[in-house]
Automatic annotation (TrEMBL):
It comes from Silvimonas terrae. It comes from the Bacteria. Keywords: Acyltransferase, Transferase. SUPFAM superfamilies: Cysteine proteinases. The keyword Transferase applies. Coiled coil: none annotated. It holds the Pfam family Acetyltransf_2. Its EC number is 2.3.1.118. This is N-hydroxyarylamine O-acetyltransferase.
């Protein structure tokens, strides 16, 4: 079975639309519904390896999902093998009011050229991010699960979400092409640097047909048909059950116990 066949089988897509843009959007949505964004392995002391075959094994064989360097990297590989012109960029996380110039490049974003228009893809950001590919058009609202926009800042763009009548910045990126050596450095920082939030906080998301499910430390939130509910996780068994059922991530009992112990002293956060 080829890589593309394995990937499409995992996404449970038996066929793809002929139109390149319709196909891209179908793949983006299916990816986020089937493959969970998460940093579980980072928290368990297993830094991600970016070798393409290792990432494919982790995601498509072992079903563990991953974070941006894994999932957006794997998605870029799929799109290229399907014939798309794909560019890989590195952005800066700016949640909480961080300043562009003071942040490292720790987020991978993709762009795809179709008929002269650049479309942004990001299957591994988290809540309030893209839930579909979107055209890169400045200051034009993008209506998805949240209202988003790209706002020019310096040589790049701020990805922003509309909240409480104002625009909140999620991350910044530019259109500079990057390569494996760049991704390895950013991944190493994100998964090993002591101050990296990925080493201290559980951040996870999976889209559903009705909305999304997120995990922020020991809190699970579900957005379903516009209504939000929360579940506070109080035991390792509950964490084990919820992650397996809602993230579709095969977490075993031992790892659930270790993860719960790691998170028990951490407050709930709003990074995803």
């Amino acid at each position: 079975m080829t890589f593309v066949e394995r990937y499409l089988q995992y996404l449970e897509l038996k066929s793809l639309p002929d139109d390149p843009l319709t196909r891209l959007r179908a793949l983006h949505v299916a990816n986020q519904q089937r493959i969970p964004f998460n940093n579980v392995d980072v928290l368990l002391g297993r830094p991600p390896q970016l070798d393409p075959d290792e990432v494919a094994d982790k995601v498509l064989t072992r079903g563990r999902g991953g974070y941006c360097f894994e999932l957006n990297g794997l998605f870029a590989r799929l799109l290229r093998e399907l014939g798309y012109e794909v560019h890989v960029h590195l952005g800066k996380m700016l949640a909480g009011g961080a300043i562009v110039e003071e942040r490292p490049r720790t987020h991978m974003v993709l762009s795809v050229q179709i008929d002269g228009q650049r479309w942004i893809c990001d299957v591994s950001f988290g809540a309030r991010g893209l839930t579909d590919a979107a055209p890169l058009i400045e200051d034009t609202p993008i209506a998805q699960l949240d209202t988003l926009r790209y706002h020019r800042h310096g040589d790049g763009f701020l990805m922003q979400t509309r909240r409480h009548e104002h625009w909140e910045t999620l991350y910044w990126f530019d259109l500079q092409d990057t390569w494996m050596a760049d991704w390895i450095m950013s991944n190493h920082y994100s998964s090993t640097f002591p101050a990296s939030p990925f080493l201290h906080n559980l951040m996870a998301l999976r889209l559903t047909g009705h909305g999304r499910i997120t995990f922020n430390n020991l809190r699970m939130a579900e957005l379903r048909d516009g209504m939000r509910s929360e579940t506070l996780i109080s035991t390792p068994q509950q964490l084990y059950t919820l992650i397996n059922q809602h993230l579709l991530l095969p977490l075993n009992q031992a790892d659930a116990g270790a993860l719960f112990t790691r998170l028990a002293t951490q407050p709930a956060i709003n990074l995803v």
